Amino acid sequence: MTSKPGAVQLEVDDRHVATILLDRPAKLNALTLEMVAELQQCIARIREIDPRVVILRAAGTKAFCVGADISQFSSFDAVSTWRRWIADGHRVFRELSELTQPTIAVIHGAAFGGGLELALTCDFRLAVTTATFALPETGIGTIPGWGGTDALTRTIGRTRANELILARRRIDADTALGWGLINEGHPADQLDAAVERLVDELLGGAPIAQQAAKQLVMAADVGASAAVLEALASGFTSATADFTEGLNAFLEKRPPRFSSSNPTAEPATQRVE
């Protein structure tokens, strides 16, 4: 399934793996409000079809995304920036981060500004070894406006976040890996294989349990009680068909055969309309 042609597209394959593609390589995948709206439409469709894994990619090799389209952003006055530009981005990025499925950002080239903020919404970030990362907004008199000050600080800590945000440092993939900003770095010709390995690992897990576990991790990140939530989630998952299958497979010493998280979904490698 693939979305109608646009700057943001959605495709779902027969494994129930959804891929969101930023497709504006001539502009280094810089985000416009129209693209943010298209991204929201993709997220809404993902909620409907309930795939197993969601991958976020970008067209071209020069940039994953260089952030906001400055030519559009600069045309907004202060009130419009507050009411639309920042509000829309925050809402859509939050919706992406709150998807119950595991999400993977695949990063080629530059991830700057809003592009890095977009990557930070994903659970996993895999990058080419030539990728670069930066939040340069203070250099043009503004600030990271789509959640970067919060998400980056929670990911790499206040001290490192200050290096990117206040000092506007641009870091390479090796540094990003050492700081915990990305999960893996690979040469360009090996990145897709690494993504596929991770997808296979994720597909090997029980989908309902994975989605519940992801929500627990997100709750822990904001200080929620694991003792309470894990008890509730354990009780819930123990009542699923996936738990029965997983337990039987363990006892029978065979690989489990988990069902799709949405048994009514119709997998197909086609465009989502």
Low-confidence stretches: 261-270
Q: Could you tell me the strand content as a percent range?
A: 15-25%
Number of helices: 11
What level of helicity do the residues show?
40-55%
Structure description:
The chain is α/β, with parallel strands linked by helices and 273 residues long. Helix content is 46%, strand content 16%. It has 2 domains: 8-202, 2-enoyl-CoA Hydratase, Chain A, domain 1; 206-257, Orthogonal Bundle (Lyase 2-enoyl-coa Hydratase, Chain  A, domain 2), CATH 1.10.12.10. The chain contains 11 helices and 11 strands. The strands form 2 sheets. A 7-stranded mixed beta sheet has the order 10-7-5-3-2-1-11, with helices on both faces.
Helix-strand blueprint:
Layout lengths: L7 E5 L4 E6 L10 H17 L3 E6 L4 E3 L4 H4 L4 H20 L5 E5 L2 E3 L1 H6 L4 E5 L3 E3 L13 H9 L1 H8 L5 E2 H7 L4 E3 L1 H16 L3 H15 L4 H12 L3 H12 L17 E2 L2
Parallel strand pairs: 2-3, 3-5, 4-6, 5-7, 6-8, 7-10
Antiparallel strand pairs: 1-2, 1-11, 8-9
TL;DR of this structure?
With 273 residues, the protein is α/β, with parallel strands linked by helices.
Keywords:
2 domains, 11 strands, Lyase 2-enoyl-coa Hydratase, Chain  A, domain 2, alpha/beta, seven-stranded mixed β-sheet
